[in-house]
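[recover] target loaded
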């Protein structure tokens, strides 16, 4: 059974930090690019960061560059999103996605974890 389970969300004050985790099971984790998306209330889902299969290349949205860091541990089938200097505009549900590079395979989404930045 394929699963992507996010954790680590919560309520944090502006300027604070959170680390999200996304634990994968049921598929070959190291075959997949991993993306973090977020969706704020009333807005479209947006790509926040992604990381290649080996972890050697990462990309970030301009809005989080310099504050967020994506990483992965293929031995633990887990990807992380370290979020520092959080702002109110970072409030959203955060989702991880496993994106295949192989034709015919499926992509997978997690169920999301809520991050609320508020004083």
């Amino acid at each position: 059974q394929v699963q992507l389970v996010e954790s680590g969300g919560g309520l944090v004050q502006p300027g604070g930090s959170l680390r999200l985790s996304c634990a994968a099971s049921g598929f070959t984790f190291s075959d997949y690019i991993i993306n973090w998306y977020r969706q704020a209330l009333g807005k479209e889902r947006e790509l926040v960061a992604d990381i290649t299969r080996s972890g050697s290349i990462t990309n970030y949205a301009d809005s989080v560059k310099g504050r967020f860091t994506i990483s992965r541990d293929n031995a633990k089938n887990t990807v992380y999103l370290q979020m520092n200097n959080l702002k109110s505009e970072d409030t959203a549900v955060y989702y991880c996605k496993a994106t295949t590079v192989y034709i015919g395979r499926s992509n997978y989404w997690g169920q999301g974890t809520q991050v609320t930045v508020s004083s």
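[recover] notes: The two ends are 39 Å apart (CA to CA).
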